[in-house]
Amino acid sequence: MNKGIQIWPLLGVLALTGCGTQVVPSAQSAPRPHLRLDPVIREGMAWIHHHTRLVLYAPTRLPRSARRHESGYGFANSSGYGMTLVANLPKALPFNSPSVSDGRLGKALTSYSVLKPTQAPGVSAESLLASYNLMGPAGLPPLEGTAVRVNGLITHWEARQGILWWKHRNWLFVVEGQSQSAAEQSAARLTPSKGLPAGPGLYVVTPGAIMADWDEKGLIATVSSQGTTPSAVLGVVESFRLVSPALLTQNG
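Request: output the structure for the sequence above.
Response:
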């Protein structure tokens, strides 16, 4: 029986502190003028824009099973913002409708957030990311194990923790499985493209949830989901883009 990864509450980072200083995007990350957003994301980001001074980021792609979100709910303050997309509602409801945000209606499928990090001296980038991830405040477990080749990829199976891990560019991938073969099957379906954010980043897959978080120009961006595939969530991560406030006032 392995210990596995502690499931840390998703979006359990609302108590972050920060002074609310606006982060200025670089010229390389300038907003795209013709960016297309899902209507619910557009509505949520318009609300977020009025409640935070942080630079706005959002995914432009959603998992196939989540394309028809009817509503969402979120938070925004000087330390960060985020939203959860909800489906299976009896009718379309406004963003942050109380009957949606309190969980009485619908099914929460995908969440994302952008946060100002608080980093203790001497903490590595991967340990910092782990503290925002499913691993929780305990951080990364010891990354050891036996080398295993999965679809040409060199990974490592850590039997005591029941995890398969490997590095890709500036990202660390960690997959928990009920067995080594189950973890290898999940790993085989994860094929990052050139669109993966520069990071550093951490991507964690457990039998119950999937979560990615990474450094986005000094901010911590996160994507989490339940009930979809690891590759679908990876697509959401790769679709993250800088959003111009002007885009949120456009129709369509």
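The chain has five helices and twelve strands.
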